[in-house]
């Protein structure tokens, strides 16, 4: 679509353009071997990675040359060139898009890798930007002929760059507007090329070289769709949405049914690239088979999805992972294990940096690696810092569905699954006290849905503490503003990413689990936090299983081995609607029976709603286990306690409530 618009512009300038065209490259037939790739030396973080995707030339390596400060003098990395050394008096045009913030541009009058001109755009202020520069290289030394300091030196989305060279004149145009004309004739002829400096998200298209004056105008901001296999979204107890993308506009259709009988159909009523078909009137906690068609052509067959469990169901299984990588080998090792769990769990959680690159595209770094899992299971994600780099997470929000109501933010949300309550937080935007997101988190944690749930989970990208990062020990604002909310409302586990590894800690009754080993380069041990008991620099994913009153968590590495595990016992707290004893003050009663043999009941009365924490200690004051942590309303309650591993002796039950502590002595006799 972009190329058609550019062709019209070119013809409007001259009806004789094609007879004077030296090069017209749309990359629709792959990468011709006439293009020569050059990685500048000495190179770091290479080699370069030039390839064709969706008929667009891409370069995704973060390669640069030289060490600082020379790195910031030359701004070299990799380039790709084509043409004839005798080309003179021409216009080179290219469409460019960058999703990283370093350097990108075009080359012209190229003699060899040490002698040429370039127009370079650099965005990163730490690396010499934001600037637009016209430069030349003579025997490897760089000379700046003109530079402009400008915010947004690299604009968002596609833009057009033109270099019109004629004898000793060099004129640069940007989106059709004249940028600068300089007089310089060190070289009067040469090849053309495209260049990247530390630019891991580069796109090039519609490259042309003409004898006649052709100047590309600003391209239309058109979305390029790739073929994306179906993925499950917006699951509920009686509905599911099937999403997909197609390169061409088609009418999508889903055929579905139970027990391998595919008998029901739902179709779109218009042509589109972006498909979301919602299936209603389904049975709770049930498996359905489905097939997807595009224009009546079968796209995918024999997938399945499962509707959400009811709130009365005491079983729940889900996976958690984050910081996935960039389609690299480590990511695919983890993804292979995750895909193998596709039929064994209810859903997945992703703790951010869904795109470990720049948040511009998710096909190669999410939908393809986890293709089998997402085709059968809803994955609930949160926004990582990388997901924001390209367009402040607009692409992310366009690819994942958490509400069909445009008035509701999809940056943060909550959902209930069985006896579990979950809150996804965007830790890239304001969550300080009084902000909209803070008020949302507080309201959700205090809601009946949350407080009536057996298990309460929160997941977001930036952890409050971490040991596996050399220059950062965790997010202080999370400690200041969010941890008090979690502690006051009985959160069981907080899941985070950002740190590339696995960590587990227990702080004031809450487990903090970092599971950011999905495929990114690993971080390594740098400090100690007293409450963190496990820190492992390894690629992995995490699995949680809830069965009746027991929650089991296991972290599993790429060899399939369990690298950490723990359990949380969630006793059933019952309300005595007709208490025989009515107290006016909060009270912890003597357990009954006492003495007891393995099992007893611990009862207490709350004079008003309170956060309650109950722990068991042995006779010398050592904590045996935490029995309960949560928020309860006014009333009398009973919690069963059973531990077959304890030996006979004296024990204590301690309750914290209403900012007071209560203790009762217990006797275990076997």
Mind explaining what this structure looks like?
This protein has three domains: 209 residues, Sandwich (Jelly Rolls), CATH 2.60.120; 261 residues, 4-Layer Sandwich (Purple Acid Phosphatase, chain A, domain 2), CATH 3.60.21; 95 residues, Immunoglobulin-like (Sandwich), CATH 2.60.40. It contains nine helices and 45 strands. 42% of the residues are buried. The N terminus is likely disordered.
**Mean pLDDT score:** 91
Largest sheet: 8 strands, antiparallel
Q: Supply the CATH architecture of the largest domain.
A: 4-Layer Sandwich
Give me the Rg, rounded: 30 Å
Tell me the CATH superfamily of the largest domain: Metallo-dependent phosphatases
Structural class determined from secondary elements: mainly beta
Q: Indicate how many domains the architecture comprises.
A: 3
Q: Report the strand count.
A: 45
* Tally of individual helices: 9
Helix fraction by DSSP (H/I, runs of at least 4):
10-25%
Q: Which regions have little confidence, pLDDT < 50, spanning 5+ residues?
A: 1-18
Span from first to last CA? Answer: 80 Å
In the CATH scheme, what's the topology name of the largest domain? Purple Acid Phosphatase, chain A, domain 2
Beta-strand percentage range: 35-45%
> Looking at the structure, what is the overall shape?
elongated
Query: In the CATH hierarchy, what is the class of the largest domain?
Result: Alpha Beta
């Amino acid at each position: 679509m972009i190329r058609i618009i550019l062709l019209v512009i070119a013809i409007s300038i001259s009806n004789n353009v094609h007879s004077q065209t030296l090069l017209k490259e749309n990359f629709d037939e792959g990468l011709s071997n006439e293009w020569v790739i050059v990685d500048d030396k000495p190179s770091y973080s290479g080699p370069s990675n030039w390839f064709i995707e969706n008929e667009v030339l891409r370069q995704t390596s973060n390669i640069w040359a030289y060490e600082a400060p020379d790195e910031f003098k030359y701004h070299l990395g990799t380039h790709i060139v084509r043409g004839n050394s005798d080309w003179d008096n021409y216009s080179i045009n290219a469409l460019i898009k960058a999703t990283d913030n370093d350097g990108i541009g075009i080359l012209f009058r190229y003699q060899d890798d040490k002698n040429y001109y370039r127009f370079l755009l650099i965005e990163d202020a730490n690396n010499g930007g934001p600037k637009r520069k016209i430069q030349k290289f003579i025997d490897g030394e760089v000379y700046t002929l003109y530079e402009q300091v400008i915010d947004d030196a690299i604009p968002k989305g596609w833009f057009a760059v033109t270099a019109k060279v004629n004898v000793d004149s060099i004129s640069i145009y940007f989106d059709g507007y004249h940028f600068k004309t300089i007089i310089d004739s060190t070289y009067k002829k040469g090849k053309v090329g495209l260049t990247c400096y530390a630019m891991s998200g580069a796109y090039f298209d519609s490259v042309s070289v003409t004898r006649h004056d052709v100047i590309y105008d600003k391209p239309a901001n058109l979305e390029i769709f790739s073929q994306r296999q179906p993925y499950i979204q917006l699951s509920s107890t009686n509905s599911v949405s099937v999403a997909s993308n197609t390169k061409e506009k088609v009418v999508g259709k889903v055929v579905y049914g139970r027990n391998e009988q595919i008998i029901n159909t739902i179709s779109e009523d218009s042509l589109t690239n972006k498909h979301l078909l919602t299936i209603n009137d389904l049975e709770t906690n049930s498996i359905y088979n489905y097939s997807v068609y595009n224009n009546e052509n079968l796209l995918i067959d024999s997938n399945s999805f499962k509707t959400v469990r009811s709130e009365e169901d005491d079983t729940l299984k889900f996976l958690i992972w984050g910081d996935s990588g960039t389609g690299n080998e480590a990511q695919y090792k983890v993804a292979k294990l995750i895909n193998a769990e596709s039929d064994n769990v209810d859903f997945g959680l992703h703790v951010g940096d869904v795109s470990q690159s720049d948040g511009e595209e998710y096909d190669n770094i999410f939908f393809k690696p986890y293709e089998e899992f997402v085709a059968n299971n809803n994955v609930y994600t949160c926004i990582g810092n990388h997901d924001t780099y390209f367009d402040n997470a607009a692409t992310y929000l366009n690819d994942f569905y958490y509400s069909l109501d445009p008035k509701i933010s999809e940056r943060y949300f909550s959902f209930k699954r069985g006896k579990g309550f979950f809150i996804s937080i965007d830790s890239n935007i304001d969550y300080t006290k009084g902000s909209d997101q803070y008020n949302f988190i507080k309201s959700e944690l205090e809601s009946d849905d949350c407080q009536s749930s057996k298990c309460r989970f929160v997941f977001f990208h930036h952890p409050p503490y971490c040991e596996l990062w050399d220059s950062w020990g965790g997010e202080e604002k999370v400690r200041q503003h969010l941890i008090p909310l979690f502690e006051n409302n009985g959160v069981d586990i907080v899941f985070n990413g950002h740190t590339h590894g696995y960590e587990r800690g227990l702080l004031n009754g809450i487990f903090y689990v970092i599971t950011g080993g999905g495929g990114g380069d690993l971080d390594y041990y740098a400090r100690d936090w007293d409450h963190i008991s496990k820190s492992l620099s390894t690629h992995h994913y995490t699995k949680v299983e809830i069965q009746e009153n027991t929650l089991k968590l296991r972290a599993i590495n790429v060899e399939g081995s369990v690298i950490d595990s723990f359990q949380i016992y969630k006793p059933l707290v019952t309300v005595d609607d007709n208490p025989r004893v009515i107290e006016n003050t909060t009270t912890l009663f003597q357990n009954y029976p006492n003495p007891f043999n393995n099992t007893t009941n611990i009862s207490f009365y709350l004079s008003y709603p309170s956060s309650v924490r109950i722990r068991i200690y042995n006779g010398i004051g050592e904590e045996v286990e935490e029995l309960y942590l949560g928020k309860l309303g006014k009333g009398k309650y009973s919690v069963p306690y059973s531990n077959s591993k304890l030996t006979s002796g004296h024990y204590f039950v301690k309750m914290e409530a209403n900012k007071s502590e209560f203790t009762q002595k217990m006797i275990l006799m076997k």
